[in-house]
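Before the break, one more example. Copy the sequence into your notebook; we will annotate it together after we see the structure.
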Amino acid sequence: MGKKILVIGGVAAGATAAAKARRTDEDAEITVLEKGKYISYANCGLPYYTGGVIKPRKKILLHTPDTYGTRFNADVLVRTEATAIDRKKRTVTVKDKNGERELPYDKLIIAVGGKTIIPPVKGIEKTPFFTMRTVDDADSVRKFIEKNKPKTAVIIGGGFIGVETAEAMMHCGIKTVIVEAKAEIMPNMPRIAAMNLREHMERKGIDFRLGVFAQEVSESKGKISISLSGGETLKADMLFLCAGVAPDTALAKDCGLEIGAAGGIAVDDTMRTSDKDIFAAGDVVEKLNRVTGKKVLLPLAGPANREGRTAGYNAVTDRDMKFPGVVGTSIVGFDGYSAGQTGITYEQALQAGIDADYVYTEDADIAEYYPGATYIFMMTVFEKKTGRLLGCAASGEKGVDKRLDVASAALYAGLSVFDLENLEFAYAPQFAKAKDNLNIAGFVASNKLRGTGFAVSPEEFSEIRKKDKIQILDVRTVKEHDDACVEGSVNIPVNMLREKLNTLDKNTPVYVYCAVGFRGYLAVKMLRNSGFEAYNVSGGMETIARLEKIM
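Here is what the structure looks like once it is written out:
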């Protein structure tokens, strides 16, 4: 007889753990417990099924209990809830339709995931609402829409699930408002990147209430009232709670397992808990952030799968597989536009005690002369002393995922912005540019560190304008300047700058901007070589205009 491996929880971490255990040890006795009725499903695909983008329901059901059990020779017990763990007896108490019983284990894997956060809103316990975490959630939303033909919806929470649920509602023809307590949606991203996504959503008909929260909700005659902290009351046919998830640590706490400072089960790099016979994986555990060296929560499917794989292997073998941590790579899309983040933001770097800096860049995703080129906005964060890459946020219509994936690999490898200058990318005009967006981010950041780029951030420029006597030079075309410009700027297109240098005062610093930064850089080098004190505003007018909206 092989080891008795008991896995609590299916879906990403649990189902992966059991499958890896079986692939590693054919003799192990593997049992998977799942409180719901589905053992393996695409929970990240639920909003797209709800909105009709994914049409056949079977597409989101990756395995039934029978197919999973047959393929991996495992006992799959659905609608079976684990209610207690006895570490001394090495048993788990389970409850199903037949009552309670105890199941023994040699090694236990806890993969119960997270639980939906229900915000403390007055009246919420008496008001019908929807969440978007399980197949049952998606089914109930679809059935409600088909039966009641709702016209309006309010979503509390502007994170990943909130944005994806809003897209689902748009596809269903339902007018939607997102209520987000923070100043911008996607609070874990830099505001300047998240803002681009939100403005795209607004163009598509989604409405927002930012910086306010729901204080009270109620329902009358099928209509839901949502009273906001700012005094406004919204009316809707549907209410969604998408305020995030928290680790479901009740089982672990009750049996005395160590809970980390971030709030998840504490595990080492083999996914072992404080009990050598119990492993844990997925949204319920803390992860090591490879950029900061600190433990964090990161409820994402990718890490959950890799952690489950590690836990499943180590549960059946004496050889330790390591899970080395995360860099925190994520992306969200809305109807053809996307925004994402890898690593840490500038604010998170400062909070971690890292002396950091950042640059803005905006460049085409493919060769600009090739049909279909669109622009990607990027904010690249790095350590001042070493140039070590710390993070990258990006937004745009196409190619955002590619740049984040490469930046994620660079973060994992501990590369610097000097390395970004020389990374090689697959190039042909329809796929990329000869100088990729990440190369350009590396150029700008490296020049800043070397002191050869003479760049200032738009935030710094804004402060300098208030207190110092400066010249502001717009080196875009006359038409660009006439369409929108910085107040008090002089317009000299970069191609005419040499012949008009005498119109500028050499005794007063010149702050230069263009559309996204490149022409400004050329102008600053020209001015510096001619004896001027000149600086380029990173990100140009595009970034200046964005910041003016949020400053």
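Residues 341 and 393 are 4 Å apart (CA to CA). The mean pLDDT is 95. Try to locate both features in your own notes.
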